[in-house]
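Quick one, T. Sequence first:
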Amino acid sequence: MPLEFELCPGRMIGGNHPCFIIAEIGQNHQGDLDIAKKMIKMAKDCGADCAKFQKSELEHKFNRRALERPYTSQHSWGKTYGEHKRHLEFSHQQYRELQKYAEEVGIFFTASGMDEMAVEFLHELNVPFFKVGSGDTNNFPYLEKTAKKGRPMVVSSGMQSMETMRRVYKTVKEHNRNFAILQCTSAYPLEAKDVHLRVITEYQKEFPDIPIGYSGHESGVHVSVAAVALGAKVIERHVTLDKRWKGSDHAASLEPQELQELVASVRLVEAALGSPAKSMLACERPCHDKLGKSVVARVRIPSGSVLTLEQLVVKVAEPPGVPAEDIFQLVGRRVTQEVDQDQSLTPELLDGDGKKAKC
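Structure tokens:
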């Protein structure tokens, strides 16, 4: 199976395709539809490929006691956790409105399905791909049902072990070959020492036939850019309009100027990664023509002499002569005319057949 697939209509990921950048709006919209639309537009303006939300059917994600427990955090939008979550949860109709707005803006739109019923709704909504949040990565009935829907999947791996991720890979691939796994650490905000970007390389070894990416919760953009340098084909970062807003995710999110910087930096690194083939490039030719070194005569060499290494030296020369890397190939060659000291050794001064002279 190729290491690439179509994640969204007309947009391939993996292989040599550009990194797919997801602006994770999540619930940083504060439960306000107008703010959500502003964030979709911001994600588009900053160059992200996709604006992503989080969709829950609360009675299917939480049991009754979890929804009824008191929630006194400074980030709370209600007296209980259920009231808090209901404030932040958009209705099905609001999701349709947001999807339509994203289409008008020109950015891909999807959401993490935070429970099986949310996945059913997102499937009905016809999102281009399913995002599996870290909290459901070891939820194997959920994974199997989601994979069977046939849509591409992006699976985060926060809070999981490599053994679990092997099971995740096997479970999803049995039903759906078009998926990616993201290295992720579920801490908000995330300290650099807990990022472990080297897991990306391990995932590439363990799962060589799928794209690997990175979902980050750290401050700034540098770590995410480094992930791209390591080969991440999907980057997901939380975004916000203001890190000072109420809500636990804002501190680990990128403000517009940071998202713009991330996108620009990722594209710059992708351009810099270039090709694995090593050769002199056209852009290097002026430097080579000015400073590239050639073989010159260390001493005067009489016509008919068979060249020895002691007669030769490497210098920046005018006119350019035999390239420096070919100096050893000149040993044993015969010169057809006298060569002055410090004169460039050029092909016309050498015997024509290129063979070393016999003594």
